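Subject: design request, 287 residues
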């Protein structure tokens, strides 16, 4: 039996709905925050409707996004337009750090979904987000977002709002840069970490980042161990400097890798080398 709990504040700041039975997955029987700066109306339910979870053999789960299901919803264009408007109409400078980070992660992930939906409407299918735009991977550098008087590409958006204006051409790492963010940003590729099936919320952001990072590292797309060493995804290659404040890739893995991997990493006599050589699958992250 489905259960619904509706709570509305007098000021209209937040509306919460609890839906369904518990099944041991993130978001089950958790309030759907329909209207906060970090979670605009409809976004939480959108994730529930289109994110498909698949358990992994040794724990954790992967996710896929059912873009076709969303595309076939007759109200999806209006819904996406409203969610997009709410994400992009606020002033990020007015938010505290945790709220701004949660907003930015949620906004980035939604905007990628929105881009895929727009491309479906134009082309009828999407094989890879890398094919959208004027050239290979151009979609990430095209100015497509306007916030206040500023215009952003997806790459510029994440650099500004989540990675503290890092310049990866230098060896300078901004204070407070959090490499866990790499494990929650999802660019619509199967190689990406799983799209987390609930919005990120400022009041529990640290715990969600921990959980999502550990879950991503349960997948062999992101971490494998064999006789030659520890193999990790290209995230540790492309953004290797981002892990310097956490003991480098090995130090980061010692904190977040699943138990069997930790045993290999902690073997002082036969410490395995970390290789960022797991190829990235750019095909669309659909079921």
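Subject: RE: design request

Done. Sequence follows.
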């Amino acid at each position: 039996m489905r259960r619904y709990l509706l709570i509305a504040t007098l000021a209209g700041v937040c509306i919460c709905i609890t839906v369904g039975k518990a099944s041991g997955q993130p978001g089950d029987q958790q309030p759907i925050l329909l209207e906060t700066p970090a979670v605009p109306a409809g976004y939480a339910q959108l994730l529930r409707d289109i994110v498909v979870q698949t358990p992994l053999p040794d724990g954790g789960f992967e996710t896929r996004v059912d873009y076709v299901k969303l595309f076939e919803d007759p109200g999806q264009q209006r819904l996406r337009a409203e969610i997009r408007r709410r994400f992009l109409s606020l002033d990020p400078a007015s938010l505290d750090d945790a709220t701004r980070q949660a907003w930015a992660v949620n906004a980035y992930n939604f905007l990628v979904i929105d881009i895929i939906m727009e491309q479906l409407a134009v082309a009828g299918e999407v094989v890879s987000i890398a094919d959208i735009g004027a050239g290979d991977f151009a979609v990430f550098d095209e100015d497509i977002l306007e916030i206040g008087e500023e215009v952003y590409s997806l790459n510029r958006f994440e650099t500004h709002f989540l990675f503290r204006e890092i310049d990866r051409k230098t060896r300078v790492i901004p204070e407070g840069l959090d490499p866990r963010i790499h494990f929650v940003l999802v660019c619509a590729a199967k190689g990406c970490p799983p799209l987390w099936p609930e919005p990120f919320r400022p009041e529990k952001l640290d715990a969600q980042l921990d959980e999502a990072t550990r879950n991503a590292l349960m997948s062999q797309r992101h971490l494998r161990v064999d006789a030659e060493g520890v193999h990790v995804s290209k995230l540790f290659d492309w953004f290797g400097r981002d892990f310097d404040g956490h003991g480098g890739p090995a130090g980061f893995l010692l904190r977040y890798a699943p138990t069997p991997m930790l045993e290999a990493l902690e073997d002082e006599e036969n410490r395995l080398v970390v290789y960022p050589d797991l190829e990235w699958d750019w095909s669309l992250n659909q079921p």
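The longest helix spans residues 97-123.
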